[in-house]
Amino acid sequence: MHTEETRFHYMDNLRAIIMTLGVFFHAALAYSPALHNLWFTADQVSSPLMDHVVNFSHQFRMPLFFAIAGFFAALLVERRGVAGMLKNRSRRVLLPFIIFWPLVSLAIILPIGWAVTHVQNPSPLLQFIAYGQSQPDAPQPPPTTAHLWFLYYLMFFYLLTWVVRILVPPALGLKLLQLHPLVLLCLLPLLLLPGLALVQLPFPAPDSFLPQLWALLFFGCFFTFGYLLYSSTAVIDYSVTRWHWLVIASLGAYILFSKFSPRPTGFEPVILPWTEKLVLMMSAATISVWMSVAGLALARAYLNQRHGFMRFLSDASYWVYIVHLPILLALQYWLLDQTGGWFYKYTISVSVTLFVCVISYLLLVRWTPIGWLLNGRRRDRAAGSV
Description:
By secondary structure, the protein is mainly alpha-helical.
């Protein structure tokens, strides 16, 4: 059993890296040919390389988030009980969502209005928005949770943790972790298939305020997996010296995923034959699980120590996650009319967005009540709070 003083540096550091990598991921969407008709800032310059960067990382980036969140939820339950966990997560997840969602939404919507009227080389989606604004009877799109959908779903999973602990014997989940790690690595992708069967692949961000069943099933599996990892990290221990095989196998699964992945040409979904959909589902599930475990194993092997820069990144990453998308989109609207190749624009997008996020964190967040809201007080973090 873990002690009260135990600090899981590799989990802290991995969470910080994955959250910060959201800037790199969202910046790449503008230069992905496959998303040219679907993304706000889709540029005229693009690269097929960005398709692969986006599609491959998309399979495990958010699943790994949820696994880490489940791990820390279990930590809180052990140290503070279920009521204490819910209180902590309400303050650190629900309250930031309530406060920042309207601000972030406004910061995303307002630049769209500017881009529609000022950008000379608008993306197809901006052109579609401009056409809709010219039609007085056009229906208004419903509000979404934007990129804060991760926080929105986390609150459902925290509440479900309370319900499941009442209804399901704890030994049931622990029996799963008692399987040989290799068996577990083969079994876990199968548990994702019911959720993936309910959604078009590659799966979209479930940013609707109406909870999506597929997202509850799919991401719920990863949250549960992370929750159980707190009791036994045998599968991570097993993978620490084998992570490269998981990465290689995932890349092989991605070749299958790329072969069967539909190529949308508009806003309508592409219907696949059930055999192709099954191959697509299985390859996506395999990448999601094996790359998530590989990421955890790599962090355990190389990031399991306190480091000053990683501590700073861990503190700043929550703020970066919340504010980066409006900043990035506004910058990329301006870049639509600038000359230069996709790599130049991508580099500018990432570097300027990170610079603005970090500077705003230092000036507005780190030593202010906003920082206490997002990260807790420093004495609490030093004591092992999450």
